[in-house]
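Hi Y.,

Following your request, here is the sequence exactly as I used it, all 258 residues.
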Amino acid sequence: MLFDWHATLVDTMDAMYYALDEVLPRLVELNLIERLVPAGRSKTLEDAKLVKYVREHVRLHPKIKAARKISRTDIFEVLFGDDQEAKGIAHREFDRCYARHFGVVRPLEAGARQRLGELKDMGIRIGVLSNRSRRFMAHEVYTVDGTGWHELFDTMVCGDDVAQRKPHPDLILKALDNLQLAPGPGCWYVGDSTTDVIAAKTAGVTAVFYNGAGWNQAWIDKIFPGTVRHPHLPDGVVANLDQLVALARQFRVERADA
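Below is the corresponding structure, written out as tokens. Let me know if you'd prefer a different format.
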């Protein structure tokens, strides 16, 4: 079972949004304003509004910052779409800014470490993936909860370990290669964003959407429309890690009975 890190296992929202506050005003200087997704090309009306606001104000709308539910990866996906070069520039600038704010990391759920331990006790190998650079990710993994969770993970793959970050499948495929495993439905990738689901489906593994933000079903249906242009759908949705552990136990029982 492979996990996304930010907003799936831990909360680093403050540092992330502080860094975004520095990155977005620099879009003009970075020659990225003209590379924002053109009008009419966004996936949803909400995405189009986000792009329009950033184009006009070079910052996030206060409501988005207050809600703190969208990751920087999803924000860059909304802003730049299929422009991989533009996203690469934005991610590099984000890393530069994030270096001034990272450090404090908290479990997203109070019992997260225990839930991961329960999965390990079932004999499940666990990996953690992130678009974050290794210098940030390693610090967070080794310091969360005061003592770190590094011993829980059989592999850790970071954004600068691969050629392309999520939503490309490189992180997942690298983790499986590290574990000497082939992609398949027996591998679950658990993440909180549309980019996580796209990466999982593209990699050929089971996509589990972690709905820790508490989106209602109407919103989930909107961000995963299942259209020709946006075909990727999660194979399962969980609201918390308790549900994930229960789903894993159920899956193991059904496999044993088959």
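Strands lie at 2-4, 10-11, 106-107, 127-130, 155-158, 188-191, 206-210, 236-238.

Thanks again,
Q.
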